[in-house]
Amino acid sequence: MKVKAFIRKYIPTPALFLVGIALICALIHVIAVISPAFADFFTVKIASVFRLILAKLTGWLPISLAEIAIICLPIIIGAIVFFAIKAFKSGKARGIRYLCGFFSALTLFYSSFVLTFACGYRGYQLGEKLGLERAEVSASELRTTTEAVIKELNALAAKTDYGEDRFSNIPYSYTELNQKLNKAYKKGADRYGFIQSLKCRVKPVILSEPMTYTHISGVYTFFTGEANVNVNYPEYNLPYTMAHEMAHQRGISREDEANFVAYLICIESDDEYIRYSAYLNMFEYLSNALYKADREAYRELIKTVDINVRYELVAYSEFFDKYRDNVMADVSGAVNNSYLILQGQTGGTKSYGLVVDLAVAYYKNVNA
User: For 261-271, how does the pLDDT look when each residue is reduced to its tens digit (9 = 90+)?
Assistant: First the structure.
């Protein structure tokens, strides 16, 4: 059978169109891997349009469309199998056309990944964009940075309300928090040219309790344009985690860079609790690194942290004991680790903690 006749008989025209788009996206992806300059151009000038469109298309829905799709996945898979069987019962040609159509539809996930998010992994490092010299971190530099963060954290802790459960309390609603973070990101977009200006809601995950067993506090779903956050975690995590997922939604793909952009945006916010969340989360990263580098310095500095902050961290550890060791966390960690390595983040899930390098470089630059 000739090629044209085969295509006409077995491959639907929409399938050819989708595969064609995927091939163009594959070319874009390859060029982005080769050229960081192109990757940054595409992320800021082209992908931002697709991210905006997706965010606005799904933003009106108060719950996560991606989460709904995952919840309905067994039904979706069942429907796919049912219609596949039905198509093949109607004849071989119809069955093959169905499979071709189905597999071409799957290419949409790859195409949306490239058109919205993939190139962000291949651009120039955030340190270069901010004019920071990112280098090997010494124990003394780590201590100096941690001291600077503790100073700010203690000042904000004095203005923070803590409950009987020892956790701090957000003094306003989730919706207000979202609005305040959008305002903070607007200021950040005006200041940093690589951050997209975008106003959109961050969606609370319905199944946040089960999600906590995976140790995932938030996720950006590129194929729906949604920033999603686990609301089961203690409240002090919420502003910083939301800011992290919003960073992804605005084109910051690498995990360490999304962590640091979230930190920058939050500490420059007008809101004291958002700043508190940022400094406390950064303190956790820094103190964990300092503990490994210089335990004596860690023991000295931890004594200088506001007592309420220390109580909150103890309360968090007790909260997390329930979720600490389980199969779901191991599986999700392995999957996420593999995904990050495939995107050029050779540290895998360890790249989340590389925000320490950026923080040290930032404070060295501030104090220079």
Answer: 999 999 999 99
Q: Is 227's pLDDT higher than 90? A: yes
Q: Both 306 and 250 in a single domain? A: yes
Q: Are residues 139 and 209 in the same domain?
A: yes
User: Can you list the alpha helix ranges (DSSP code H) found in 60-201?
Assistant: 65-71, 73-89, 92-116, 126-130, 139-157, 174-191
**Can you name the residues that pair with 358 across neighbouring β-strands?**
none
Contact 208, 232 (CB under 8 A): yes
Q: What is the residue-wise DSSP string for 277-301?
A: HHHHHHHHHHHHHHHHH-HHHHHHH
117 and 135 in a single domain? The answer is no
Residue pair 306/283 in contact by the 8 Å Cβ criterion = no
> What is the rounded distance in angstroms from the CA atom of residue 156 to the CA atom of residue 160?
6
> How far apart, in whole angstroms, are the C-alpha atoms of residue 113 and residue 342?
13
> How far, in Å, CA of 220 to CA of 249, rounded?
7
In a domain, 126, yes or no: no
